[in-house]
Amino acid sequence: MKRTFALAMSVATLLTSFSASAAELQEKVETTDVIPVESSSVYYSDVENSLYKNEIIEIADLGVITGYPDKTYRPYSQISRAELAVLMSRFLSVDHYIKAAKAAASFSDVSATHWAAREIKYFADEEVFAGYGDGTFRPEEFVTYDQMLKILVAAMGYGDDAENKGGFPLGYRMSAAELGITKGITDSEKQQLNRGVAAKLLYNALDAVMANGDVPKDLFSEDLFYVSTAGSDTNPGTKEKPWKTMKKAAQAVIPGGTVIFEDGVYDETSVTTFTYSGTKEKPITLKARNKHGATIKYGKTMSDIMKMQVTDGLEYINIRDFHFTQQVKSSTSTQDIYIRFVGSSHCEVTGNKFTNMFEEAIKTYNAHHILIADNVIIEPNHEGMDIFASSFVTIRGNELDDCGRVGLMLKGNANNCLVYNNYIHNEKATMMSSAIGLGGSSDNYSPFDVAKGTGYENYYTICYNNIIVAGKEGLMPSGIGFISSKGCQAWNNVLVGCDAGFLVTETDALRKGWEWDPPVVEPVMRNNIVVNCKEGVWCANVPSGPDFENNLFCNVNTKFDVYGFEGDAKFLDNYSDWHLLPGSDAIDRGTPMPEKVIGYNGQVIDIDLVDYDGNPRTGKWDLGIYNVD
Questions:
Q1: How far is CA 210 from CA 90, 92, 94, 182, 207, in A?
Q2: 209, 83, 205: which is closest to 150 by C-alpha?
Q3: What is the dihedral of CA 110, 111, 116, 119, to 10 degrees?
Q4: Is the Cβ–Cβ distance between 226 and 259 less than 8 Å?
Q5: 302-340 pLDDT, tens digit each
Q6: Integer Cα distance of 276 and 279 in angstroms
Q7: pTM: predicted TM-score of the whole model, two decimal places
Q8: What is the rounded CA–CA span in Å between residue 102 and residue 127?
């Protein structure tokens, strides 16, 4: 963190004393990420004639404030406690730290999937924003002008000064005026804090000198660059003179840089490669201005090559919110891949849409600590994602539609990965193997370990809260496959309409040059619900050390006493809504997952104990992806 909270304790109880109305915001922003959808003020349809146009534009381009998915900013709407938490996280430059934190529900009315959950939890832990005595945070209560002043003044290190001047509210008003924070604020603007006034206060505070001598505006780590279909790659990449292609942006962006792509279709004719590596403190980010508004369209000569490559040890590169497609889809090439990570680490691919590919949307090889989250992958002929010889890859919240071979494949000694909250469904394509393959069939020279007795296709991957649905019979041979794996686990998944809910088998490693055909060892299969499948579990060979308990099978043919029990899940809908109705045989029948699992080489895998909605799993566990109580 570049900035610290000065005198945090002086504002520890500030937000417990809010007296603003508890009326709900008319339109809440609900996303799978931790912040509202970002949108530049250039595109805000309601700021052109606003009193705060200039402040909003400047603050938005620094990434401090964000707009709504409908491309409005709503400058005259009031600001909520949750919105203030997000604004302050960005102003204090702790948002990168917060985004990397473990998602958790900190208050009874703030679930782990709430768009500001991480910010609220962070500030609560720092004792800056406190909740109420009843265990709530009341994220949608409105904030007053004076309350925001107190937060700003104290965070900049002048809390004692304000207290010496008389405390809240007059002392903080005096300190804010001396710092220039209230410059240009009229008496009428002090009566009710709105999003426009908040932008003005933050804009003024950027040039104020903090108690430690820093100037907030100078502390932003991200240099902003721009790309537009009307730009030129000979330009400097400024807002006024943007670049034109993703290739140029990837080669020119420096550590700490964020490149914003304006809406439009970008015709790319060559491979996207990166020149520089980011760092933990200064990541490199390429992002669409509006989610899926920037379409990266690769030309017809690129159908048989990998489009974007992050290789040679590059780290901390983030790709967000694009639509990737191409002019011509290959009919055969296994090189028809959009994004490939090789030997890279700590990179993120989030919020993107992938269409018109033959092979994978995303592939990793010998890559580590990669986050792949909230992407949509439509109709790949082969895998949606191929995680090969990689470790600590998190695959979360993605949707995969009509995959031809495998939805998510983790093979070639993949290890210590997390696969959760994904939705994989086939409505028309016939899948060749498993929707999620915990293991696979790799060659004898790529994996790091093929020795007899030690080499496995997958080690200790944890797979939970996933939804796998075949829209009709025969589209999916299996939902989740344990394939020559060791210590892999499947908890609380929902599998519908597959030929077999689970597949447990060894692969043909000997034929590919391994020293042995590794069997499945120590698989864990608990709390899953299997519905309308020909077989609940299909085992080629009885695995070593199996842990199969509390799985519910509905309308399937299997040995229930070995793998679980037969009953009625009573979903709201077997194919579209997997919440449990009262009387479901899945309620209170589960066993709790561990919060930590010891993985490959003794490394620790941390697990979020939440359901698909983000609600904490406490007390008695239910089967499937949702917890009733």
A1: 16, 12, 16, 15, 9
A2: 205
A3: 80
A4: yes
A5: 989 999 999 989 999 999 999 999 999 998 888 999 999
A6: 10
A7: 0.73
A8: 18
